[in-house]
Amino acid sequence: MKVTAIGTGYVGLVTGACLAEMGNHVVCLDVNPEKIRILNEGEIPIHEPGLLEVVRRNVEAGRLQFTTNVDMAVQHGTILFIGVGTPPDEDGSADLQYVIAAARSIGQRMTDYKVIVDKSTVPVGTADKVKAAIDEELAKRGVEVQFGVVSNPEFLKEGAAVEDFMKPDRIIVGSDDEQATLLMRALYSPFTRNHDRMQVMDLRSAEFTKYAANAMLATRISFMNELALLAEKVGADIELVRRGIGSDPRIGYSFLYAGAGYGGSCFPKDVKALVRAAQDEGIPLRVLTAVEEANERQKRVLVDKVVTRFGADLTGRRFALWGLAFKPNTDDMREAPALVIVEELLSRGATLSAYDPVAMTEAKRILGERPGLSFADKADAALEGADALLLVTEWKEFKSPDFDGIKAALKQPVVFDGRNQYEPSLMKALGIEHHGIGRGTPG
Ligand code: NAD
C-alpha cells in the first residue's frame, strides 16, 4: 500500500519505517528540513534501538523516502498518518495547531480518496475537527473529494518503539467509515497474523482510550511514589511491598516502581490535557489532579534527600549525576526529572558532573551552558571528587557498577538511588551510605 507519514518524530518515523518493513511504500514528510537532511544522509535524528537498521534497509529497498515536499507527500499516500506533536497549551490542553495544519495541507492538495489517520495523541473530538478542516479546504478549492478520518492512537514506548510497533499488544482503530476501516485492517494485517489485535470502535472512544491508558499508567507510578514516601516514615521497604501486592493478578507487577518521578513527552502532557478537558466538561478528575501534583513533588524527592544529608546551602559541594534521559534507551529529555534535579542543585550552589549514555547532546541543547554544570564522557569520570552520586535514570550500565570504584572516586561513599537499583543490604555490607526511594530508614 502507499502510505504517507506526516511528522518524522518518535511516532511518525517509527510508523513509517515499520510499515515500509512490511512491504508498503512509504513517504515520510516533515516541516523540519534539518530532520529530513539527516534522514536523507542515512542517519536518524533520534536515538531509538533498532530503528536505524530498519530505516536503512527500507531506504535501500526503495520503499522508504523522506521529504519536505508537501505536494509529493500528499499525492503519494492512500493512507496518510498524522504523527505531529501535540504539546500542552498554556492552560494544559493539547495544542492542536500542528495536527490541524497537517490536515489543512492535505485538504489543500488531495485529488483522490484518502484515509487520514490521527496517530498523534489528541483529545476526544479531534477527528471531527480534522474532518472539518479538510472539508473547509476542499470547499475553498471548490472540489469534492471523498476521504475518511480514522483515529489510530499509538501505544509504542520510546526505547522499545520498533519492537512495540512490530508486536503491538493492541491496535486501536476508531472509525465510522467502512472503506477506511477495511484499508486499516489490510494495512495492519501483517501485525495481527497470530491473533486479531485490532479493536475497531467509534472515533471518540478510540481517542479517549489513549488518554485513559496513559492516565492509568501515570496513576500507578504516582500511587507507588506516594506510598514510598510513607514507607520511609514508617520503616517499610516499598520494593518488598511492590512484590507483595504485584503477586495479586488483579494488580500485577508492571508499572509499580517507585522512583524520582515520571517524565517524557507523553504522561505529563496527557495527564494535564485530560484534566483540562474534564474541567471544561464540568467533571473534575480529582484522582488525576493528585497524580500530577504527586509527580511534581516526586521530581524533587532526590534533591530533598540531598538537602537533608548535606544541608540547604550546597555551595562547594559536587555531585555526580548518572542518567539524564527521562528513561533508559532514549535520548528524550522532555519533562525529564533530571532537568528539575539539575536546576535545583545548581540553584543551591552545587556543581554537577553529569553522564548519560546517549542523552547528553540533547541535555546540552535543552540546558545550554550552565556555570557549575559539566558533562563527563564516561560514568566513572563523573564520579571523580564528588560528594555523592545521584542515580537518576536506570540505564543498564548503571545496574551493576563497580561499587569499589564508586567508593574510591567519591569523597565519601554516598549514593542517592533515584530508581531503586541497588539493594540497601548490599550497600550496607559494602560500606556505602544508600538513600533509596521508600526503602525503609536510610543507612
Ligand atoms: P516529535 O516532536 O518527536 O515529532 C513531531 C514531528 O512533527 C516533528 O519532527 C515536527 O517537525 C513534525 N511536524 C510538525 N508539524 C508538521 C507538519 N505540519 N507537517 C509535517 N511535519 C510536521 O513528536 P512524537 O514524540 O513523535 O509525538 C507525536 C505525537 O504522538 C504526539 O501527539 C504524542 O503525544 C504522540 N505519542 C508519542 C509517543 C512517544 O513515545 N513519543 C508515544 C505515543 C504517542
UniProtKB/TrEMBL annotation:
**Span of domain UDP-glucose/GDP-mannose dehydrogenase C-terminal:** 320-424
Sequence intervals crossing the membrane: none
In alphabetical order, the GO MF annotations are:
oxidoreductase activity
Report the leader peptide range. Answer: none
For the keyword Transport, the answer is no
Name the enzyme group at the top EC level. Answer: oxidoreductase
Q: Which domain of life is it from?
A: Bacteria
- For this protein, the Enzyme Commission number is 1.1.1.22
Q: Which reaction does it catalyse?
A: UDP-alpha-D-glucose + 2 NAD(+) + H2O = UDP-alpha-D-glucuronate + 2 NADH + 3 H(+)
**What single Pfam family name could you report for this chain, choosing any that match?**
UDPG_MGDP_dh_C
Q: In which pathway does it act?
A: Nucleotide-sugar biosynthesis; UDP-alpha-D-glucuronate biosynthesis; UDP-alpha-D-glucuronate from UDP-alpha-D-glucose: step 1/1
Question: Does the keyword field hold Transcription?
Answer: no
Keywords, sorted A to Z: NAD, Oxidoreductase
**Xref: SUPFAM superfamilies:** 6-phosphogluconate dehydrogenase C-terminal domain-like, NAD(P)-binding Rossmann-fold domains, UDP-glucose/GDP-mannose dehydrogenase C-terminal domain
Cited PANTHER family? UDP-GLUCOSE 6-DEHYDROGENASE TUAD
Q: Please give the family membership noted in the entry.
A: Belongs to the UDP-glucose/GDP-mannose dehydrogenase family.
Database matches in NCBIfam families: NDP-sugDHase
List the protein's name: UDP-glucose 6-dehydrogenase
| Organism of this sequence | Roseateles agri
Traced from the root, the source organism's taxonomic lineage reads: Bacteria, Pseudomonadati, Pseudomonadota, Betaproteobacteria, Burkholderiales
